[in-house]
Amino acid sequence: MSHKPCVAGVGMIAFVKPGTSGTYIEMGASAIRQALQDANLDYNLVQQAYAGYVYGDSTSGQAALYEVGMSGVPVINVNNNCATGSSALYLARQAVESGAVECALAFGFEQMQPGALKGHWDDRPRATTHMTQSVIDELTADVSELPGALRMFGGAGREHMQKYGTRMETFAAIRAKASRHAANNPLALFRKVVTTEDVMNDQLIWPGVMTRLMACPPTCGAAAAIICSQAFARKHGLRTDVVILAQSLTTDMPVCHEAKSMIEVVGFDMAQRAAREVYENAGVDPLDIRVAELHDCFAHNELLSYEALGFCPVGGGERFVLDGDNTYGGQIVTNSSGGLLSKGHPLGATGLAQCFELTHQLRGTAQARQVECVNLALQHNLGLGGACVVTLYGRV
């Protein structure tokens, strides 16, 4: 642990609905300034910068960073779908841990449009492989009119229901839990507490499978993190109490389409392999972890993530929820921030917003959201197409 990279500073702006935010330049610059201020670090000491965003023109990262200063620092723009923010974090951590630099900045932002996610390049093949797309088309042919992401994650939830008897009410309970956590997060988009019954009675978008509240909203926002070596931190008087113990970035294996399973299509295998690698490298058991930020783009995916990350047995996700093991007083507090479901999901910023939350949990500065006795914290960020980043943080 003594040589692991430190998270010296974090920043995050409040997430808001599309059309109500500043520009991506304003949002990104604000989050960067917050991270620098949190670290008490002069921007000119940053040696590399990694900018994450999904919807934007080339070199948008430079446009945001130049608002903070034009120091000549190398800037690398990153796009890994919904795992973009944590992919930027992965590269910053890798640069520091390898000794290539002593201090790196990872930041992410998204200025999103209202409505379901959609591609912006209609004159070329989609990024989803034709083999995987054929599985999606086959297994969700009955709901071909629905948006793609809803078909994929709803289809995975339906498969879990058919295999293990999971009830729609269980997914509603996950969404209700997210609202209770977000009520204590001033940076979350939705802070209104809803009950399981409220979620079940909301607009039905897939009969028997999903209501509108079970899907995360399109969101605008930004977040950032300063990653540095412990030697650099000590030299410049920065904090060293939160470190990255292990991190893994995985992509799809053939099982994604060969299994003919929507659960595999939405990244179960990627998450499972990334988590196992992280646990092995850090020498920890998933049951040792007290708090986690999971990629709950749909309530269904949060339940699948419990199983993929080893918090409960495969097929045991519903029991995990019903026993209250996913919240305060249970086995592990999942998405203390409110998660993507309530906090919001600006694609390029999400992974770094997860880092922001877990850093404050480990520092003991999460205020009303604070989880007791936190020494380890896990982050899971998923991007279909595919990429999955699992990060384990520790308190020194």
UniProtKB/TrEMBL annotation:
Keywords: Lipid transport, Lipid-binding, Peroxisome, Transferase, Transport. Residues 261-385 form the Thiolase C-terminal domain. One of its GO terms (molecular function) is lipid binding. Residues 23-192 form the Thiolase N-terminal domain. It is found in: Peroxisome. Its main location: other. The keyword Membrane does not apply. CDD domains: SCP-x_thiolase. The keyword RNA-binding does not apply. One of its GO terms (biological process) is lipid transport. Its EC number is 2.3.1.176. Pfam families: Thiolase_C_1, Thiolase_N. It is an enzyme of class 2 (transferase). This is propanoyl-CoA C-acyltransferase. It comes from Pseudomonas fluorescens.
